[in-house]
Amino acid sequence: RGSTTFDPAPTRGLGEIPQAGPPDADAAVGAARAAMESPEWSGMKPAARARLLNRLADALEANADEFAALETLDNGMPLRDARFFHIAHAVETLRYNAGWATKLNGETIALSGMGDWHAYTLREPVGVVAQIVPWNAPLAMAAAKIAPALAAGCAVILKPAEETSLTALRLAHLIAEIGFPDGAFNLLTGDGETAGAALTAHPGVDKVTFTGSTEVGRLILRAAAGNFKRVTLELGGKTPVIVLPDADPAKAIEGAARAIFTNAGQVCNAGSRLFVHETLHDEVVEGVARIAESIKLGSGFDADTQMGPVISAAQRDRVRDYVRQGVDAGAALRAGGRAVEGEGYFVAPSVLTGTTEDMSVRREEIFGPVLCAMSFADEDLDRIAAQANATDYGLGAVVWTNNLSAAHRLARKLKAGTVRVNGGGLDPALPFGGFKQSGWGRENGREGIDAYTETKAVAIAI
Ligand code: NAP
Ligand code: MG
C-alpha cells in the first residue's frame, strides 16, 4: 500500500511512498533492538561513531544539489533556501553532533555517607528511539533528530511526514552506503495515524522525539505512557517580535518580514506577532507591508521566486480561513488577500493590524505567512513582556533594540525557549525548545545529546 507524495507548485503527483503499518513497525523495532544488542553497534567505539557521522555529513555535502532539488520538489521551498539553509544546516548538525560522540563523559561524585566510596556516573544510550518529524523542514529536522541519537549510540527509527519523505528516503541510501551497522538506522514512511502511532505505542521503543503540532504532541504523550517512554517534544509557537522605540527601523522592518515570511511562514518559530512602539509603529508596519506586497511567489525552481507555495491545498485553505476570520472579527488587512497567479498552493503574504488578544489569528498558530501587528505606548518592560507572553506557547521571542539594558531585561522576562536580539539564527550548538505548550526538553547543544542518554550511578565501597 502506498500514498502519493506531491509537488505543491505546480501541483502534481511525484510518486508513491510506502505506507508502513504495525508489522513494519515491529520489524523496525526488532532491527533496532538487535543493533542495540550487537557488538557492531553497541560495542562501537565513540570515535568510530563520530567518523561515521562525519562521513555521512561529507556524503550529504557532496550530494547537496540533489538533496536540495528533492526538497524543493517535495516541499515547494525556494531551491536557494533548500540548498544554502536546509541542506547546509543538516550537514552542520551532523558534524556538530559527531563531535559529541567522544565527549559523553560522566562524573566522579564525592559521597558523604559512612565508609569509603568511589562513585561515578556513566552516560549510556537510552536505547531504541522513534523520531517523528513534520514537513516544513524535512531534512534539516531529520538531521537534528538522528545526529545526536546516533552520536550517543542509540538505534533510530525515523518517521518523516507523509507529505515529504523523499529526502529521508535518499538519506537512508547514503546511510546504508556509508556502512552504519545493520539496524542502527531504520526508516518507516507512511502517515502519522498508522506508522507514527504504531511506533509511539510500541513497547520496544525506549524514547520518542517528536517535532510537530501541539495537538499530536499530546497524543504522543498519552501513547508513550504505556511503557514510560522518554519523550522530547518540539511543538508549535506564536513568537512575538518586539520593536522598542530606540530600534533601527530599517533593520527591524527587514528582520520582522524575514521572521514571518521565510518558508512561507511554515516555521514553528515564525515571528507571527509584531509589537511595535507607537513612535515607530506606522513606519515599521508600512515597511513590512511593502515587503509583503513585493514578494515574488512561484515555483521553488524559478530563480526569481522569493516565496514558494504552502505544503498542500488543505494548508492553503486553512491559512486563508484564518485571515478571513481575522478580518471578520474586525482586523484590518494591510497586505495580502490578493490572488496569486500560477499553479500551486500559494498564499499571499499578509499583514493584519487592529487585532485583539481574543482573536484566533492572535492566539492560534497559523503556520503560514500571516503577521498580526500591533502598537504599544508603554515603556514599562514588565507590561511589554506581559503582552508578548500572553499566549499558551513559549518557543521563541525576538527583540529589536539598541538599548543594552532593555535587551537583557526583556530576555529575562520573556517566557520563551529562545530569545533573539537584533536578528540571529539557528545553530546546532544553541539549545532549542519550548516553554509552556511549545514542548518538553531541548534539541541541539549539550542538552540535545544528553537527552539521548540515561545517567547510571555506580557506587563502589573501597
Ligand atoms: P503534525 O500533524 O503534528 O505532524 C508531525 C508528524 O507527526 C508527522 O510526521 C505526522 O505524520 C506525525 N503524526 C501525526 N499524527 C500522529 C500520531 N497520532 N502519532 C504519531 N505521529 C503522528 O504536524 P504538522 O502539521 O504536519 O507540522 C506542523 C507543526 O509542526 C506545527 O504545529 C509546528 O509548529 C510544528 N513544528 C515545531 C517545530 C519545533 O521545533 N518546535 C519545528 C517545526 C514544526 P503525517 O503528517 O505523515 O501524517
Ligand atoms: Mg500532518
Structure write-up:
The protein has helices spanning about 20-35, 40, 45-60, 65-75, 80-100, 140-150, 165-180, 190-200, 215-225, 250-260, 280-295, 315-330, 360-365, 380-390, 405-415, 445-450, and strands at about 1-10, 10-20, 110, 115-125, 130, 155-160, 185, 205-210, 230-235, 240-245, 270-275, 330-335, 350-355, 370-375, 395, 395-400, 420, 430-435, 435, 440, 440-445, 455-460. By secondary structure, it is an alpha/beta fold. The strands form 6 sheets. The protein has a 7-stranded mixed sheet, sandwiched between helices. It has a 6-stranded mixed sheet with strand order 7-6-5-8-9-20, with helices on both faces. Strands 3-4-22 form a 3-stranded antiparallel sheet, with no helix packed on it. Strand 6 (about 155-160), helix 7 (about 165-180) and strand 7 (about 185) form a beta-alpha-beta unit. The longest helix is centred in the N-terminal third of the chain and has 22 residues, at about 80-100. It is globular. The model has no long low-confidence stretch (mean pLDDT about 95). NADP nicotinamide-adenine-dinucleotide phosphate (NAP) binds near residues 200, 236 and 395.
